[in-house]
Amino acid sequence: MDAPTTPLRGPAGGSGPAVDDARDAALLKVRDLTVTFRRRKGSVQAVSGVSFDVARGETLGLVGESGCGKTTIGRAILRLLPQGTSATSGSIEYGGQDLGSLSSGGMRVVRRHLQMIFQDPLSSFNPRRKVWDIVAEGLVIQGVDKQEIARRVDAALADVGMSASMVEGRRPHQFSGGQCQRIAIARALALGPDLIVCDEPVASLDVSVQAHVINVLQEIREKRNLALIFISHDLAVVRNVSDRVAVMYMGKIVEIGEADHVYARPAHPYTRMLLEAVPMPDASVKLKPTSVDREMPSQSNPPSGCRFRTRCPLAARICTDVEPPLRRMPQGQLAACHFPYDEPAPGRPGPGDPGIPGDAS
């Protein structure tokens, strides 16, 4: 049965923000995506004007603090947002087809090419069903014949290091957390998707199990030329698996680019804050204090201008008045900051100074 969905309602207007390395042949194109959740005491805009592309065979990492909108983007792509409590605008194209224009039946056909791996695999399984049937469920819904179902389920289980005999007659609760996550990956693979949204797939696993699951995903991506959207708050994991990284803050992408460029020389102060917070694996190394120590503002009442300005050590008057657009940086990535790289600039105002630098537009 399809999960309740909310159809997209056309572009929100304008050309939308800049897109990193836009490709005409991109497998997935997200343009000006905005998601608003309606509440009794007002609305919360969980995602605000997000745009990006994902190419075939590419892994895009989405990182940021809890509540920044990472999971909401993944669910919006697959139209898995709860009906009646959310409103979505913008456009999402898969293979040149606008997903927002599809009926429930049309989306059911397309969804075999777009799959999702959830953070807690057990909560996404029917505890009464046997594992083999769980992996086969999508194929049954798609009307695949029994012989082909058996072949594809066995192949998917083999790809994640399991076998039909290993799961025969067993239910999800009889497997470990790492095994359940591999079963969830097999369920997604059985349908032969082109793109998989991985929503914190290793967050609840031990470090050794994390490494195994990540290796499985990497091997499968190379073998099947899969595109992955890898959602995580773990910067080390994202760096290891991603070709490009998009850093999110309060529903917006504040920096996006090649993983090596973003990690080697982050342009946005929020990206630097995240990297400064990563502990060193050496007990003799003293942690540097992070440049930000304030709490994230309320999502229902975001700050004017730059949303990060209330926590940013570089904030000036222009940050209050003008929202910085995503701009191309010398290192190649895009960043939404009036003062990228924290470098001195002629005429740059200090905190509270009403002056506006000439390069702020």
CATH architecture field of the domain at 28-249 = 3-Layer(aba) Sandwich
How many H/I helices?
11
* CATH superfamily annotation of the domain at 28-249: P-loop containing nucleotide triphosphate hydrolases
Q: How many angstroms separate the termini?
A: 49 Å
* Count of DSSP strands: 12
The run of helices and strands is EEEHEEHEHHHHEHEHEEHHHEE
Determine the mean pLDDT. 82
Q: Helicity, in percent?
A: 25-40%
The CATH class of the domain at 28-249, by name, is: Alpha Beta
Q: Radius of gyration, Cα only, in angstroms?
A: 22 Å
What name is given to the CATH topology of the domain at 28-249? Rossmann fold
The major pleated sheet works out as: 8 strands, mixed
Structural class: alpha/beta
Strand order of the largest sheet: 6-7-8-3-9-10-12-11
Strand content bin:
15-25%
Envelope shape: globular
Low-confidence parts: 1-17, 344-361
What do these coordinates show?
This protein is α/β, with parallel strands linked by helices. It has a domain at 28-249: Rossmann fold (3-Layer(aba) Sandwich). Helices cover 28% and strands 20% of the residues. The chain is built from eleven helices and twelve strands. The protein has helices at residues 70-77, 104-110, 131-141, 146-159, 164-167, 177-189, 207-224, 235-241, 259-264, 269-276, 317-321, and strands spanning 28-39, 42-54, 59-63, 86-94, 97-98, 114-117, 195-199, 227-231, 244-249, 252-258, 327-328, 334-335. Strands 6-7-8-3-9-10-12-11 form an eight-stranded mixed β-sheet, with helices on both faces. Helix 3 packs across helix 4 and helix 6 runs parallel beside helix 7 (207-224). The longest helix is centred in the middle third of the chain and has 18 residues, at 207-224. The protein is globular and about 65 Å long. The protein starts with 27 loop residues before the first strand and ends in a 26-residue tail after the last strand. Mean pLDDT is 82; it is low at 1-17 and 344-361.
